[in-house]
């Protein structure tokens, strides 16, 4: 059993089937990057339709016990997430409304600074802003997991400190292992470890580097070194795998509506388009080799369980809840 | 025990307390008139806060059993409603999302024609439009009650025919008893009766007339004549009472953002502002005289129960549901 802390793109039945064959029991999906409240509701509507159409093989999970329940039926548990906080449109009260609609993971910023804090790509990270602090406490209350994957290191450290609950970096790697703005400092990974947080290690080549993409053992070796930084309770999987992405999707993801220019996100002018997936992870179902890869680099069965799913489940247990928001 | 099919205005603790003293166990409140999706979410956020602040005396009810449960605790059951379908912003998928957020009553149109159908104030009522039919079926599925109080008679008849479930006119009177565009033809009231629908008789002077406002017996006499048209299973209470309304509220309610001119809604140039409440219904708690008024005009105990709450409860039973929309 595996849980993938973040995937994105246009999911379809084939993607759900591939994830099933890969041994993935639960996956956090990306319901939006830049969209405001109305477009985010559109996305939830489309996701509900997609899940209804594939109810024989997938379901939406809003609690760890729903993930387990779906897994026991052999179905993929889809956890609804957003890679930005634009869905809240600056409104603290929208946090509980989107929680009520099943959203469980929200990233404070995507690639740009916003009212909450700073992204990893800004020249200056001024730390968590006033509204960011409010949103984190409201997410704590409403049962949503705070995600800081694209958030700047300083804002991330502030978020860990501000949050009453442990937080996540759902999809990033250690900066000390592969130097990229999108990756996280050892300080961040240690602070996650000290507070019950989790980092999901990515397989996205632009932030993983060619060396760790060559073999599953190399990638699992990267996880072993990440465990040395943050501890075995802190490291999990967050591949950042995308499904059915096309050029307009990359343009939207990177440029949204914020620039008339070109932005490469985690990519570069040298390779602006789709990054080739790791050699060992050409097809989605290839994820099934990860547990054996972890064993090959020396993890025990207990450690393999933590990295593949138990760390995420523990974090979800600590943060997700049905927002039985005392109104009846 | 009474249920009021529609009230509006700015509710506060004093209003909840007054309704308690009036013997009102449940009330459909107006969360919006013209607002789109984002502002409607704002309204839901404010309502949730208001209910949380007054959780000792009120709660949000989304099913008849929750109404009963709150009543048994001596608390007012608030049922969330909108007097317009603008909250959906033309999106069929928003119906189930707002249902999930607890909305249970939505009026197809307010005072103006929209994508769903025609209002009672348009020169020509062309009947239910294509999107109106879709929304009705989606409301049936998602567990929302269709309200046609401000809707034109022809569109209302079409809605009754299109709907798989009985529908409501939550706040209007019989046109044959008081001639006003906002009131409903005998055809509509009979069609409601034949399909299990309900009309909530109003106490709003502009659509009730001075004669029926003089004494509670006169108003209950109007209900007795409405029962002669539609049957005793069809008639209930929908006062249209407003709380803490001020001049800007009337301007918004009538003119919204749709005109630079003046519109009087159900009022008139002769009396553009607040209509004086009925002589017998000066304060909200005066509603408590209604059951005795109904007895005074000859209704049996069983009939009093139907008119004061059982007809609404039967209709809610037939239409409301927790939208356990098969996604997990």
From TrEMBL, chains A, B:
InterPro entries: Metal_Hydrolase, Pept_M19. It is an enzyme of class 3 (hydrolase). GO terms for molecular function: metallodipeptidase activity. Keywords: Dipeptidase, Hydrolase, Protease. One of its GO terms (biological process) is proteolysis. SUPFAM superfamilies: Metallo-dependent hydrolases. Signal peptide: none annotated. The keyword GTP-binding does not apply. Its EC number is 3.4.13.-. The keyword Protease applies. This is Membrane dipeptidase. It comes from Flavimaribacter sediminis.
């Amino acid at each position: 059993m595996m849980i993938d802390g973040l995937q994105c793109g246009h999911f379809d039945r084939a993607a759900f089937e591939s994830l099933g064959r890969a041994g993935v029991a639960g996956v956090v999906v990306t319901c939006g990057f830049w969209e405001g409240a109305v477009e985010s509701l559109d996305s939830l509507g489309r996701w509900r339709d997609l899940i209804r159409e594939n109810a024989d093989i997938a379901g939406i999970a809003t609690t760890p016990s729903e993930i387990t329940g779906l897994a026991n039926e052999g179905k993929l548990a889809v956890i609804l997430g957003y890679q930005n906080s634009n869905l809240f449109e600056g409104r603290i009260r929208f946090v509980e409304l989107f929680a009520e609609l099943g959203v469980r993971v929200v990233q404070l910023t995507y690639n740009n600074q916003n009212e909450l804090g700073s992204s990893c790509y800004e020249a200056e990270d001024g730390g968590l802003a006033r509204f960011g602090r409010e949103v984190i406490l409201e997410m704590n209350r409403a049962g949503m997991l705070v995600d800081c994957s694209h958030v700047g290191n300083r804002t991330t450290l502030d978020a860990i400190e501000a949050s009453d609950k442990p937080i996540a970096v759902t999809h990033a790697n250690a900066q000390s292992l592969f130097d990229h703005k999108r990756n996280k400092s050892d300080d961040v990974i240690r602070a996650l470890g000290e507070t019950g947080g989790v980092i999901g290690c990515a397989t996205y080549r632009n932030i993983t580097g060619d060396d760790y993409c060559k073999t599953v053992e190399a990638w699992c070796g990267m996880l072993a070194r990440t465990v040395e930084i943050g501890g075995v309770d802190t490291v999990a999987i967050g591949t950042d795998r995308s499904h059915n992405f096309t050029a307009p999707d990359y343009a939207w993801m990177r440029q949204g509506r914020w620039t008339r220019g070109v932005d490469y996100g985690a990519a570069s002018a040298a390779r602006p388009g789709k990054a080739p997936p790791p050699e060992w992870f050409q097809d989605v179902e290839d994820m099934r080799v990860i547990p054996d890869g972890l064993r090959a680099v020396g993890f025990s069965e207990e450690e393999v369980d933590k990295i593949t799913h138990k760390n995420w489940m523990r974090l979800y247990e600590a943060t997700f809840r049905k927002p039985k928001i005392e109104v009846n």
